[in-house]
Structures are given as C-alpha cells and as structure tokens.
Amino acid sequence: MSHDFGPAVALSCRECGARYPLGPSFACLECFGPLEAAYEFGNVTRADIESGPANLWRYRSLLPVPADVATKPNMNPGWTKLVKAGNLGQALGLKSLYVKDDSGNPTHSFKDRVVAIAVEAARTFGFHTLSCSSTGNLAGAVTAAAARAGLDACVFIPANLEAAKIAMARVFGGKLIGIDGTYDEVNRFCSELIGDPLGDKWGFVNVNLRPYYAEGSKTLAYEIAEQLGWRLPEQIIIPIASGSQLTKIDKGFKELVALGLVEDTPYKIFGAQAAGCSPVSTAYKAGHDVVQPVKPDTIAKSLAIGNPADGPYVLDIARRTGGAVEDVTDPEIVAAIKLLASTEGIFAETAGGVTVGVLKKLAESGRLDPEAETVVLNTGDGLKTLDAITGDDAKPTAVIRPSLDAFRAAV
Description:
Number of strands: 13
Oligomer: single chain
Radius of gyration: 21 Å
Low-confidence stretches: none
C-alpha cells in the first residue's frame, strides 16, 4: 500500500544507507542503525514558502507530509518569534544576538513541531492511539495534538516530573502513566509495548514514528534562516536531550543550501547540556566518539536523557562545524533563566537556562566570535518549571501596608 508523504520517498539508514519503504519503522534491519526520511525535492522557491501559512506548514514541500496537510485538524505550531536580543547581547559582549523563542508554540514548547509531523504519519498509517515516552514537554504536546486530531492518547513519563508538566499533559485527556524510573527506563518500556498486543495500532511518536517526528525539528532551521532574511546564522546554541533537535537543525541548514534557498556560508553549532546529565559534553571534551550513558541528576528534567540516541551524531556535527559541546551546573541554569528574563523579558524553562548558560560560558571563555550573528534557542516556557525559581525569587520584593509611608520605607 502506498502512502502520501509528499517529497519523502523512502526511509534511509543513517549508518549503512540501506533504504526501506515508508512505514512505521525506526531501525535498520541490516545494521540496526536509525532510519530517517529521504527525499526527492522538486523546485522549491522562497516565494512558494513565503506564500504559505504563518506556521510550519509553509515548509510542507520540505517535510514528510501530504500537500493538503494544512487542511487537517492539527495544532499548527511554528513561526515563533526570533527576538533580537540586544540587551542580553550587550551583557555578554555579543554584537548580533537573537533568541529563537519556541515557548510561543501551542503547548509552550518546541515539541509541538515534531508532534505535528507525527500526527500526520499516525493518520496515514491508521493508528488510533498516539503515545510517547517523555521528559514532560512531549507528553503535553502529544495529548493536546491527539485531542485536536480526534485520536486517543496514552503517554508515559518518569513519575517525578515537574507538577506543571504533569498537569498540562493530563488536562487534554487521555491517559498519563507515571513510571518509577528514569526517562531511559520509560523509553525502554515503550519499545517493549510496541511488540505487545496492547500496543497494536499505537503510534509512538518518538519510537515507531520517529523518522517522521524528528523531521519537525528541521522547521527551526528553516524559520531561523527565513527570519534572518534567508541566510544562515554564523553561530547557534542548541540544547541536547536525545540530540535529535541539533542533528535535524543541521540537516535543515544543509537542505536549504542544497536547494539554493540560502547562500552556502559557514556556521558553527554548539550543543548545550546540564552538568547533571552531560554525557555528550563529557565525550566531546575527552575527544571520544562514543557517548557513555549516565544517570541524570539535574533540575533540567526536559534534557535528562542519560543515553542520548543521537549523541554520536552531535559530536560529529560539533566537530565538523567548528562548534563545541558544553555544560552548565544547576545554579548556572537558574542564573541564566534570570539573566534572560531580566534582559529580554523572556521567561525560559530550565532547558532555556541551559542554552543561555552555555551561551554565557562560551562568550566569557572567548569561544564565540563576538562579531558573528548568533542564535540561542529557548525551547520552552518558564511557567512549566517554576520549581527552579525558589526562595526569595518566589516571594514579593516587599510586603507593605497600603500607604505611601510604608512604600517609601520599603524602597
């Protein structure tokens, strides 16, 4: 049976290059490498893209979706703000700094992008239930998208996630199952469920739908380039959880160059991790090609994947582009959240604190070119991780009687 995935023509193994028909598969039968969408793009022009809707479907001709995707019930994320961050740039000594603020998506994280693509694949394959393993943001994106699409939802999370993320995932309906374990243990459980009759006709967005789901991250690359006036940034700082977002942004940049939509200019990609879950950063600093799994211990729970599937590919990209992979401690994460908020009025979740913290660390150590056009990603809303802001930061500056004398005394 043939399926309509627009310009996508096959699934291709990233390791050995073996090709497979488009279907709900995620691992190569020859070498067990990861599968990703392979394309035959037609003639795509800037004008075609610019005439599209103000969401990620403006790039439908570059994604594994049918041409009529915008007519179907979906959350329609994307086209979030690229904020010229002059105040933050001045504080860090960076002349041309931008924040790509994906907290403006429907469920306030970049995960809406990847889920939007996965929903279309689930429809195509006739799945009735949308599922995932999640560190929090994905769970909310999946349950919301399933509700909009008229699908059932059952998502799995580590039981100790932030209360706000649990509440968001539950409010849209469906089932939310907490598992006593790490994200990596949750993910292994979901892989087992796929082979069980209980999981029949279930679309696990980051497992059996992963080759389609992951392509949604490319839209960050497309938007950044278009919002910069159809050019690539010279430096970009991207958070690392599984590492997929970073690898797909690199893929998106390369596709834009290959299609002649942007000039082929050099760019450096920097990966950002929390010190309490930094297996890729550790491998990068040690000069290793293999990423050793770790047990996460950090407030940045959305990045707490101890065995990141795309870790080796992140290392390759950072080294190929002349970038790096760096990490920051929990106190540095909190300080970076406050710095971004106080300079640009953007309240980032802990993952955004990681990217801004790494941005600051790279700038202060001279590893960033202060003259280069630089983009830093904020992938979620700080209201989801309020537990990170505690103590005096969660209290009024002062509590006074309603009188001018009391106010004068307080200030």
